[in-house]
UniProtKB/TrEMBL annotation, chain B:
It comes from the Bacteria. Coiled coil: none annotated. The keyword Transmembrane applies. Keywords: Membrane, Transmembrane, Transmembrane helix. The chain crosses the membrane at residues 27-44, 65-86, 106-127. It holds the Pfam family SpoIIIAC. The lineage of its organism: Bacteria, Bacillati, Bacillota, Bacilli, Bacillales. This is Stage III sporulation protein AD. The keyword Phosphoprotein does not apply. InterPro entries: Spore_III_AC/AD (IPR025664), Spore_III_AD (IPR014211). It comes from Mesobacillus jeotgali.
Length: 209, 129
């Protein structure tokens, strides 16, 4: 019922406006053309229920009436979109980098004191499908840990510490050392410890001599 | 009484043009063109009032604004083209005036293209293939 009411008011108002338009028009040279256009629009309004049934993009076609977009506009739009994406990507990378630096400085000292380890590198992985803003859509944190170099040896044991905020993965290898590191990092970074997973790669000599 | 102002300006300009024409035909001609433009500028204000009235009515009646916008665009194109064509005709450039009118007509017709395409598509779908 509501739809019918709206449809009929549309028709009536449009006819009234079309007559006003005919009266307003300056001289007869334009009248032929305006009559064609107004007639077409009137047919479109009258047939709009049928149109909505048979065409999917009726609304968009009506909305694009009287807008002339050229190829140039499309190109400009595309280039703007492209540049936007580039800027966003660079900002994104920068945010991740600064965040990694901050995480490192937050945990560095205590890790050094308690474990004799130092963080070589932190990689932050973000879930791109997640629509939430940056801190929430963090997928996991990879921490490369190595022995501190002040022990006089340059051992480059690299560990991967995975912090998965979505679901706890079954840990492959756990040891006291990694447990301690993970608890320390979770305390420092406010990540719940049960979602922290630590994976050791080549970690047979993890306890040091 | 705007009509008195318009007619007054027009008549004064006519007499002045007649007087000046004997001495300096160029200036008389320019005077006529400028007077025509001034009268058109005066009328634009009235046209604006009419158009805003139509817009208010349409907004109050809760109709689909797309149709009203199209009609207003047609009015705008027609008036702008008409004014420009008349002024160029007054200036004695009938060729350019006809080109302006042609442009106005074509732009008005171009508005109907999306509607036409939708209609043709609908008709083609209605025909059982």
């Amino acid at each position: 019922m509501d739809f019918i009411k709206e449809w009929i008011t549309n028709i009536i108002i449009f006819i009234l406006l079309a007559t006003v338009l005919d009266m307003l028009l300056p001289n007869s040279s334009f009248q032929k053309y305006t009559k064609i256009v107004t007639g077409l629009i009137l047919i479109a309004i009258i047939l709009s229920p049928v149109m909505k049934l048979f065409t999917s993009d009726f609304e968009s076609a009506i909305a694009s009436m009287g807008q002339f977009h050229s190829l140039e506009d499309e190109n400009i739009k595309n280039s703007i979109e492209f540049q936007k994406k580039e800027i966003q990507a660079s900002q994104h990378a920068y945010i991740l980098e600064t965040m990694a630096v901050q995480l490192k400085t937050a945990a560095e000292e205590e890790l050094m004191e308690q474990q004799g380890m130092e963080i070589a590198n932190i990689e932050l992985e973000v879930n791109d499908q997640d629509q939430r803003p940056f801190p929430e859509n963090l997928e996991y944190v990879i921490v490369h840990v190595k022995k501190a170099e002040d022990e006089g040896e340059t051992v480059a044991v690299v560990r991967e510490v995975e912090i998965d905020t979505n679901a706890p993965l079954p840990s492959k290898q756990t040891s006291q050392n990694t447990d301690q590191i993970s608890s320390l990092l979770s305390e420092k970074w406010n990540v719940p410890e049960k979602s922290i997973q630590i994976m050791i790669e080549g970690g047979s000599d993890e306890h040091g001599q | 009484m705007e009509i008195l102002q318009i007619t007054g300006v027009a008549l004064i300009a006519t007499f002045l043009a007649l007087i000046v024409k004997e001495q300096k035909p160029n200036f008389a001609f320019l005077l006529i063109v400028f007077t025509g433009s001034a009268i058109f500028l005066f009328l634009v204000d009235q046209i604006y009032q009419i158009i805003s009235m139509i817009q208010k009515l349409a907004a109050n009646a809760k109709v689909n604004l797309v149709y009203v916008e199209t009609i207003l665009k047609i009015i705008g194109i027609a008036y702008i083209a008409e004014f420009a064509a008349q002024i160029t005709k007054d200036a004695g450039q009938g060729a350019i005036a006809s080109k302006i009118e042609l442009g106005g007509k074509i732009l008005i017709l171009a508005m109907a293209i999306p509607i036409l395409t939708v209609m043709i598509e609908t008709i083609i779908r209605l025909i059982p293939g």
